[in-house]
Design the sequence.
């Protein structure tokens, strides 16, 4: 077979920078910035450079070792200078990358294509990576811009699937959610709005609550209520007034604890209550009457499981639908409030890259406590 | 149209005795024994005499006014002598009755047939009743004997549906349940045994625990563990040993509280956790990880809802299947440990019938705290 490498044989793989860890623990303790060389390209692999990668809550749980989707520990990055082990994992699970070289047996992918990760655990907090075509998914991400492409596959897709897979939502139906200002929550608001589905949005109270309400309204939120208001005895009447007596079909919970328990009361007969996160780190309580008499189903959703159990075609279809919805909502401020962090500059030391990263980590989280932090790679 | 009443026109409806209430409250306060006359038979109605009716936990909740399946309050029984209202409801939801007269337009039912109730809320703690054919279901109940027929439609059917409708159980699969010595729990054990499905049975500890274990084993229980043992740190290993690493597919909960929370830990990946009761009157706690990562589904089951949403044909099919399972298990001591209470003797006063009933109520409940009490009617 003739060699058809689509680049000069003088192609020299770049030096990569990455946020890595060699053992589980508090991210502040175990994360290091690291420099390593990409392995030579082979006929079946590709090289890519990351453009942007967000910091998501699950990334942190993964480093802590409490997340079931494990990172990939590999010897290929070389050990840390002060390391105990030879194997390292790169943090981050989401991001958009541009292909910079492809082996001659690689089909359907070419230099310049933008790709996102096809599975959790690849490691996206880095400037460059070697991969196989199976690791990535190519789609028309350039249409929606860098930041949205970088944050498309986890949060908007989670919102989309949860709105689509558990109940059939029709125009005028009602969905209730807590943690409504999380990135997922904001996507829920926007997708529901695009479908004319009403959202009742629970957020934590804060001094500038009116600003947050205005912002969420601008995304398309129908009603907003704080966790404190939710506890009030008048809430039942209020929500009845909002819904005009229609049942709330779907509840989405990423918080847990008291607010999650409280929220379940507002689901209607045979409603579905989907838990996808536990930001408060508290479990919630289920009264038997919800289950037995109201027939409420308490289910969970995990995007990683969906990705594992669905085909590339289904993933591409989902991405394209979500992109269409995003374009539809172009007038809104975008899928999430975020902050860009320029990262990876070759002239910066590993110490400085690490400090920059930990700074971003501190500020991460939508809404009150921060903004989604997105590493924008520099070369 | 010619009159074809299948009885002498001299037929005089019997005087009926019933346990009634005119308002919700503590059963001890609101229940009265009452004497009333059946209304005359019409071409479309039937008269029946009850043979046996159990006291079930839900009957009590219904009288307390905390059960969503409401009793039928009607003026047809006449008011109580000391009553405030004209409308009365008869307690009890389950029982077997013999038809003693049918109107001439009634098809498929004849004098001498045994019937059970087609829906909740009919009122079965009485000697006689007038009904329409729609109120009752006729099946070959004589085959299985009086007590089993009287207690067939609620507990064994609940056990059967829960084992059948949520997961597909194959030979060798595992089910875990708490309140395993409840009547439903005993039916679960027996039906599972008939299907070669293994049961892990949680019961409350008690001084004579070995007797209970022996009894449940005789029904077909695979493993038995007390609530106290369940809390021990070794339980995980023990259950792993029992299951040989197979996942537990189904959990059945009628208790709630701590034991229900604890039990959820032993369900395997994508298991289904069905709640059908809350004997401890405590809610239980759900950790998000069970929902998100283990994909455990927390659902509820309510026989009354199933009955409402399924056809007479489906009900008859279920009853016949359950009867077959019961016959299959004839060598076992029967579907539940019970105690017969002779009730309704025409020569006894209403005061005496009431005292007798309240006595039985005190003793009701399977296992440690009592035995299922079954009114056996006297004439
Ligand atoms: N199951 C899945 O497949 C899946 C997919 C995507 C995300 N998730 C999960 O969904 C959750 C949100 O993710 P995200 O990326 O959207 O998050 P994000 O944008 O970083 O937002 C975090 C949200 O959590 C809230 N929050 C933080 N600490 C809290 C606490 N102690 N009590 C109550 N609320 C608290 C914040 O509200 P304030 O403004 O009040 O701080 C904010 O709404 C995370 O748990 C994440 O792991 C799950
Ligand atoms: N959803 C439905 O369609 C449906 C259908 C049938 C029954 N049920 C429900 O299922 C439950 C059992 O009914 P049943 O007729 O089988 O009951 P039963 O025969 O009267 O037995 C009662 C059971 O509850 C246990 N129990 C009582 N108090 C308890 C407490 N405080 N904590 C823990 N366990 C306690 C008893 O265990 P001990 O021996 O330790 O006292 C016994 O195992 C009830 O809640 C009933 O309403 C529901």
Sequence:
């Amino acid at each position: 077979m003739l060699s058809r490498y689509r680049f000069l044989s003088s192609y020299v793989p770049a030096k990569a920078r990455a946020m890595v860890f060699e053992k589980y623990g508090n991210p502040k303790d175990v994360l290091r910035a690291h420099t390593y060389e990409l392995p030579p390209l082979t006929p079946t692999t590709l090289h890519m450079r990351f453009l942007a990668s967000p910091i998501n809550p699950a990334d942190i749980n993964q480093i802590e070792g409490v997340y079931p989707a494990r990172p990939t520990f590999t010897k290929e990055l070389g050990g840390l200078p002060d390391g105990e082990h030879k194997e390292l994992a790169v943090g981050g699970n989401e991001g958009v990358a541009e292909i910079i070289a492809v082996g001659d047996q690689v089909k359907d992918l070419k230099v310049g294509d933008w790709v996102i990760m096809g599975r959790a655990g690849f490691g996206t907090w880095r400037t460059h990576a070697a991969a196989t075509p199976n690791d990535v998914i190519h789609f028309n991400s350039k249409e929606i811009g860098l930041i949205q492409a970088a944050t498309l596959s986890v949060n908007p897709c989670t919102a989309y699937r949860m709105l689509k897979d558990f109940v059939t939502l029709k125009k005028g139906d009602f969905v209730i959610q807590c943690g409504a200002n999380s990135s997922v929550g904001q996507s829920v608001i926007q997708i529901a709005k695009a479908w004319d589905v009403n959202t009742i949005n629970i957020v934590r109270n804060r001094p500038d609550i009116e600003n947050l309400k205005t912002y969420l309204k601008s995304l398309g939120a129908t009603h907003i209520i704080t966790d404190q208001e939710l506890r009030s005895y008048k809430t039942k009447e209020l929500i009845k007034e909002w819904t005009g007596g229609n049942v709330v079909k779907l509840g989405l919970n990423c918080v847990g604890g008291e607010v999650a328990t409280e929220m379940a009361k507002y689901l209607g007969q045979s409603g579905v209550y989907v838990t996808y996160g536990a930001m408060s780190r508290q479990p919630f309580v289920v009264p038997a009457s919800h289950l037995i008499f109201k027939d409420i189903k308490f289910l969970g959703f995990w995007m990683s499981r969906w990705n594992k159990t669905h085909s590339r075609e289904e993933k591409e279809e989902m991405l394209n639908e979500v992109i269409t919805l995003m374009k539809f909502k172009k007038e809104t401020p975008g899928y999430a409030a975020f902050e860009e962090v320029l990262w990876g500059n070759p002239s910066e030391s590993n110490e400085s890259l690490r400090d920059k990263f930990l700074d971003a980590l501190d500020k991460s989280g939508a809404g009150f406590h921060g903004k989604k932090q997105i590493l924008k790679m520099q070369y």
User: Anything to note?
Assistant: Residues A 292; B 56-58, 154-155, 158, 179, 181-184, 204, 254-255, 276-277, 279-280, 301-303, 365-369, 372 surround NAP (ligand 2) (CB under 6 Å). Residues 155-304 of chain B form a domain with the Rossmann fold fold (CATH 3.40.50.720). Chain B has two domains: 8-151+336-377, 155-304. Chain B touches chain A through 28 residues (CB under 8 Å).
